[in-house]
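Recall the central idea of this unit: under ordinary conditions, the amino acid sequence of a chain determines the structure it adopts. In this exercise we apply that idea directly, starting from the sequence alone.
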Amino acid sequence: MPTIFNAGLKRMSRWAAVAALLWGASASWAFPTKPIRIVIGFPAGGPLDLHARLLADKLQAVLGQPVLIDYKSGAGGTVGAQEVMKSPADGYTLMLANTGVMVINPALYSKLPYGTLKDFVPVARTAMQPLALLVNPKLPVNSLKEFTEYARARPGQINYGSAGNGGISHLVPEMYKNATGLFMVHSPYRGSAPAFTDLMGGQVQFMAESIPQAANYHKQGKVKALAVTSRERSAALPDVPTVMETGLKNFEVVGFYGFLAPAGTPKDVVQQLSEAFRTVLAQPEVRNRMVAQGADPAFLGSDEFTQFLSAELPRWASVVQKSGAKLD
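Accordingly, the structure predicted from this sequence is:
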């Protein structure tokens, strides 16, 4: 009798283990069962907001749950990053971040409260965004090569504007300076709008800015686009050469957009979210609208995005160090 009883217990234990595994799997398969929140560390109306809104409705259709956008702006995206870092690691809170938040801030801030690959798990890179190198339209130059010669003949007399210290619009001109040996003076602003105003007015003569605004002002004749920083020409500025075409070999600098989840988010949930982004980005309507916004669809899954960030972190750390930029 005890032998039969023990055998029964063993069978029950095995069935219990199988049931537990099946329950765990079904819980994972059931994801998502409630709305998903996308946190952006910048105010509404900016490029990240446009990108999130473009993807949110399509993502909602794929996942079958509402996708909400939440703005937690401040400290160059740091406030939003902290919000996501402290959220439950269940896949229901994601961060949409850019180059600055993920790979520039770690080198720029001496006391950054998060680690890119320590406190987050990459879900999907969704876009790459090149910049345009711009000059005041009254400058007597029509190519980047001509501008380089013009600036070289006037050391310290050329001012370049940026959206603020340590941002990509500051660091790309620094990379251009390092590549050409030019001496230009940095004039930081509180955002790209006032920098554009002074570029058009001639208070600064040079600027690097994302394609959407650059293309708009270039077509209106308010600024002159001399080159784009991507490997290929931009569809928004098809007649503007790349920096590499002008003679600066290997000069390729593009920002990126990507989604991340809190560290510890289950791998199968991350994979499901990643595949949802892949599906959305494969839709022609989404790709066309993204290009119109000045970003190039550039999907990477979780593992590939992790490798990409691992390579970008030291690259931008070197750029920040050479620029001397530092924030506390």
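The first strand starts at residue 36 and ends at 40.
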